[in-house]
Design goal:
By secondary structure, the chain is mostly helical. It is built from 21 helices and two strands. It has a single domain, classed as MFS general substrate transporter like domains (Growth Hormone, Chain: A). The protein has a two-stranded antiparallel ribbon with strand order 1-2. A hairpin with a 2-residue loop joins strand 1 and strand 2. The longest helix has 45 residues. The N terminus is likely disordered.
Length: 480
């Protein structure tokens, strides 16, 4: 028996055909792993700022209350780039192909991390973060799309969920790197902002937190040239023979039936004048809703503002850095569980159940903040919220976004949905600090709880189940 990424393949008493299929699945896993490095870079670049924030803020003079919006923009500036990257990802991947676009994203990740590490003034720092966001936006629009288009339908949910696993590994990697660099020169809890600025961590250490990202970026850039073209993109570009060759490399003889399904879909589209535009718009709005809700359920403020949330709960700086790593570990464990569940339980059940779970946990977190209760109970409830999100909304949203849309418009519709995701993420991130100051952190978490209740209701009535269906089968169901 072979186990990997939550997938299980049996080889005991395997026939020659079964052994051949196992070999093909190993190749699919290899391609999926390489493409998922875009998710790892996404996760690292997105969260590294949380651990660096207590040190770059004193360096750039952002610790005064009057600098709240400047501080918020420093955290959320990458999200401006994410929006730009997501907006161009559909056009870039449609013209140049999915694998070439991932290579481009790796090059941008490498450049932006170096620029951030050497920034000496606020606007240079912000600009470098915007550039890194462009790379995140491109990778977030292309990695799950590429994985979905090279995956067999039986395992597509688990394979696309590897992208979310890579994001989580990137998050945890950033948290561990941040902690290790902090431990080189720990800063006493009683230090003022001016004193923190004069320490090694306040001057240099936080720069290495960003510079470490160049390593996985270089790996993706090199390995990206080994990826085959997406067979569905090749067919879209009328390169049928190349598409057939890639499908045979991926699936063996089963690739012939997949190629036939793709051909039938294109013929059907032609006969019905590209299908029902109204229904396609409905799918796009559903994709946009899922993308926005994944952000406005509120969990991501825990990662982006982890230092302030734990400080609000009276955690010391050393406890804070350790607790951040603990959240990343829980995130990783429950993402792995999601990969095992997505093709068994189904997408819709996990999404609705996850939203209801967050509704309850955020409501109770608000009560704890309101009563100024911290300690172990607070940490356990926070970890519970992260585990619910990691097992449901975080990975399953990416799976659904890679499945819902018709092949001819898939890259662009996914790009628009991901653009909406980054707009929502930007608004969530930049408004959290002013909202928590104006409303109180308890009311802020109660607001997120109400949003989760609304989201679960909408998904219960509007979300279809896509488990076990090929991309072409899904498309024939939405194209009359």
């Amino acid at each position: 028996m072979v186990r990997g990424y939550g997938l299980t393949f049996r080889y005991c008493h395997a026939t020659e055909t079964e052994a051949f299929l196992l070999h093909k699945m190993a190749y699919v896993l290899q391609c999926t792993t390489i493409a998922s490095l875009g998710g790892l870079l996404f996760g690292y670049d997105w969260v590294v700022i949380s651990g660096a924030k207590p040190f770059y803020e004193p360096y750039f003079g952002l610790t005064d209350p009057g600098q709240a919006w400047a501080s918020g923009f420093a955290v959320s500036s990458a999200l401006v780039g994410c929006l730009l990257g997501a907006l161009i990802s559909g056009t870039v991947s449609h013209r140049w192909g999915r694998s070439n676009s991932l290579i481009l994203a790796a090059l941008i990740f490498f450049s932006s991390s170096l620029w951030t590490a050497v920034s000496s003034e606020y606007w240079g720092f912000v600009s470098s973060r915007v550039l890194g966001g462009v790379a995140i936006g491109i990778a977030s629009g292309i990695s799950p799309l590429y994985i979905a288009e090279i995956s067999p339908s039986k395992y597509r949910g688990s394979l696309v969920a590897i992208y979310q696993l890579a994001i989580v590994i990137g998050i945890l990697l950033a948290q561990i790197v941040n902690l290790c660099i902090y431990q080189l020169a720990p800063v006493p809890h009683e230090y003022s902002a001016a004193a923190i600025r004069e320490t090694w961590t306040g001057q240099t250490g936080w720069r290495w937190m960003f510079a470490a990202e160049t390593v996985p970026a270089a790996i993706l850039f090199g390995l990206g040239f080994l990826l085959p073209k997406s067979p569905r993109w090749l067919f879209l570009k009328k390169r049928k023979r190349e598409a057939e060759s890639v499908l045979n490399r991926l699936f063996g003889e089963a690739g012939n039936s997949t190629l036939e399904e793709i051909s039938n879909v294109f013929e059907q589209q032609s006969s019905v004048n590209r299908g029902d535009h109204q229904h396609r718009r409905s799918l796009l709005w559903l994709g946009i809703f899922l993308a926005v809700f994944q952000q406005w359920c509120g969990i991501n403020v825990i990662f982006n503002y982890a230092d302030e949330i734990f400080r609000a709960a009276n955690f010391a700086l050393g406890e804070l850095m350790f607790s951040i790593v603990l959240t990343g570990t829980v995130n990783l464990v429950f993402t792995i569980l999601a990969m095992r569940w997505v093709d068994r339980i189904g997408r819709r059940t996990l999404m609705v159940g996850g939203a209801m779970g967050l509704f309850v946990s955020f409501f109770v977190l608000g009560v704890l903040f309101f009563n100024q209760q911290a300690g172990v109970v607070f940490l356990l409830l926070l970890l519970t919220s992260i585990s619910i999100y990691a097992a449901t909304l975080a990975p399953i949203t990416w799976v659904l976004l890679s499945e819902l849309f018709p092949i001819e418009h898939r890259s662009r519709m996914l790009g628009w949905s991901v653009s909406a995701l980054w707009i929502a993420c930007f608004l969530l991130t930049i408004t959290f600090k002013p909202m928590s100051v104006a409303m109180g952190i308890a009311n802020t978490f109660w607001l997120y709880s109400a949003i989760c209740l609304i989201g679960s209701t909408v998904m219960f009535f509007a979300l279809p189940e896509t488990k076990g269906k090929s991309l072409e089968m899904l498309q024939t169901r939405i194209e009359p």
